[in-house]
Write a structure and sequence with these properties.
The complex is a heterodimer of chains A (about 300) and B (about 200). Chain A is globular. An eight-stranded parallel sheet of chain A has the order 8-7-6-5-4-3-2-9, with helices on both faces. In chain A, α8 (about 185-195) crosses α9 (about 200-205). In chain A, about 45% of the residues lie in helices and about 10% in strands. Chain A has 13 helices and nine strands. With about 300 residues, chain A is α/β, with parallel strands linked by helices. Chain B is α/β, with parallel strands linked by helices and about 200 residues long. Chain B has a single domain (about 5-195), classed as Class I glutamine amidotransferase (GATase) domain (Rossmann fold). In chain B, about 25% of the residues lie in helices and about 30% in strands. A seven-stranded mixed sheet of chain B has the order 2-1-3-4-12-11-10. In chain B, β11 and β12 (about 170-175) form a beta hairpin. The longest helix of chain B is centred in the last third of the chain and has 12 residues, at about 185-195. The mean pLDDT of chain B is about 95. The chains are: A alpha/beta (about 300), B alpha/beta (about 200). At the A-B interface, β1, α1 and α12 of A face α1, α3, β7 and β10 of B.
């Protein structure tokens, strides 16, 4: 019989990035209590994001948005068998320490909450993996350089309007394509332009892909929105306010899960898009005041 | 014989499996329907979330076709969530499973993500250990008599070896993720089974 006594290495890049690999092709749903978490799991979510309030309500409430109450996070952790993520404020490494101690499976260092620092958290020192938002390749690679094990587009959270997520994904794709066409001598210049670590720029130029999984987030409200982001090359989808701010969350959640799997099959997307009830009310991005644009936080 | 392998592509890291199968020189395709299942000689059920994969398989009428093909002898490899989906039951609440592996699995057996780890794992029949990545991984809590154990790990108490790699006839199942590392030996086992017909 083989000997099972080798040393166990926790929190390595492979282990942290690996969980994101397992979430691919799936939908991660924002939930604010155990009941919503169970509805999400039952609908086929691959993970839930434990929050005090969904982004649309954070936007409406104004003021300072912080990490969720530990009681709330624990209540959600004990309600489901799928991974539980939770948000820490940008730069707030103590909120991150608390979330790690609570046993969350992924921390979202998120612009949806109110940032506390121009510096992001040094995520390499944690055993728990982090996901961070990015609007372009430079921002994505800065976060990976700090230790993020997963990236998501920032979109514009809590708007039910997918336009910004599309913009971010298109820009990232274009910037990656461009890197692959450059000569080695041009990569330091590209790193300077992108304001990104040179070693990661070299890596992306060689592989043609981000070093970590990249999900869509921000404004996804319908099955067709989810399929659109998948067709643009995202690895999976976060849905924030889009599910539990809609008329029939359970039905919409199932439909978005199915559209994410069968994203290239219009017949199936048509079928699941029927009779979903009211979608969340959307916001046009150009009506937002500059201070209300969450995506401009923590660049 | 030339082998056409499929990876169940409902959710999870099926692209990594397909890439690895292609490296071994076989044709490899995603499988999302019963019609696509009919075209393959071997199948991988990838890592992912077993509840999501099981639910989608049920909605899209894949449970019976999958069970029929695997019971008829199609070589099949399940990794992590794939192991759970192939097994007969879990120690937790009921979820859709194929029951083609005579085993009861315990989900998240090592704990939460902070307890996930990588380790060198000795495997029966391999000269060198495998770099095994366990991510919120299951292990086998109860094993049927026809199931061969190929690798074990210790539980937290350090005294009870738990199966993490097993074979039952045409079915291989691992708790860890051979598709995430640069080591094709476990996928080679699957392809060798398919070539033997």
């Amino acid at each position: 019989m083989p000997q099972p006594n080798a040393e166990r290495r926790h929190g390595t890049d492979l282990v942290k990035r690996g969980l994101a690999e397992m979430l691919k092709g799936g939908v991660i749903m924002d939930v604010v209590d155990a009941e919503q978490a169970r509805i999400a799991e039952e609908a086929g979510a691959v993970a839930v994001m434990a929050l005090e309030r969904v982004p649309a309500d954070i936007r409406a409430a104004g003021g300072v948005a912080r990490m969720a109450d530990p009681t709330k996070v624990e209540e959600i952790i004990s309600a489901v068998s799928i991974p539980v993520m939770a948000k820490a404020r940008i730069g707030h490494f103590v909120e991150a320490q608390v979330l790690e101690a609570l046993g969350v499976d992924y921390i979202d260092e998120s612009e949806v909450l109110t940032p506390v620092d121009d510096n992001h958290i040094d995520k390499r020192g944690f055993t728990v993996p982090f996901v961070c938002g990015a609007r372009d390749l430079g921002e994505a690679l800065r976060r990976v350089g700090e230790g993020a094990a997963m990236i998501r587009t920032k979109g514009e959270p809590g708007t039910g309007n997918v336009v910004e997520a599309v913009k971010h994904m298109r820009l990232m794709n274009a910037q990656i394509r461009r890197l692959t066409t450059l000569d080695r001598n041009e990569l330091m210049g590209a790193a300077k332009e992108l304001r990104a670590p040179h070693d990661l720029v070299e890596e992306v130029a060689a592989t043609g892909v981000l070093p970590v999984v990249n999900f869509a987030a921000g404004g996804i409200a319908t099955p067709a929105d989810a399929a659109l982001m998948m067709q643009l090359g995202c690895d999976g989808v976060f849905v924030g306010s889009g599910i539990f701010k809609s008329g029939d969350p359970s039905v919409r959640a199932r439909a978005i899960v199915e559209a994410t799997t069968y994203y290239s099959d219009p017949d199936k997307i048509a079928k699941v898009s029927r009779n979903l009830g009211e979608a969340m009310v959307g916001i046009n991005i150009d009506t937002l005041e500059p201070q209300d644009r969450m995506q401009d936080r923590g660049l | 014989m030339s082998v056409r392998a499929g990876a169940l592509a409902l959710q999870g890291d099926f692209r990594e499996h397909i890439a690895m199968l292609k490296r071994l020189g076989v044709e490899a395709v995603p499988v999302r329907s019963a019609a696509e299942l009919e075209t393959v000689d071997a199948l991988v059920v990838p890592g992912g979330e077993s509840t999501t994969i099981g639910r989608l398989a049920r909605i899209y009428g894949l449970i019976e076709p999958l069970r029929a093909r695997i019971e008829a002898g199609m070589p099949t490899l399940g990794t992590c969530a794939g192991m759970i989906f192939l097994a007969a039951a879990t120690t937790g609440p009921e979820q859709p499973q194929l029951g083609v592996l005579d085993a009861v699995v315990e989900r998240n057996a090592f704990g939460r993500q902070v307890d996930s780890f990588e380790s060198e794992l000795d495997v029966a029949g391999f000269d060198e250990p495998v770099r095994a990545v366990f991510i919120r991984a299951p292990w086998i809590a109860k094993l049927g008599s026809g199931v061969e154990v190929l690798a074990v790990v210790e539980d937290a108490a350090g005294d009870d070896p738990r199966p993490v790699f097993v074979r039952q006839g045409n079915v291989l199942a691992t708790s860890f993720h051979p598709e995430l590392i640069d080591d094709t030996r476990i996928h080679e086992m699957l392809i060798a089974m398919a070539r033997e017909g």
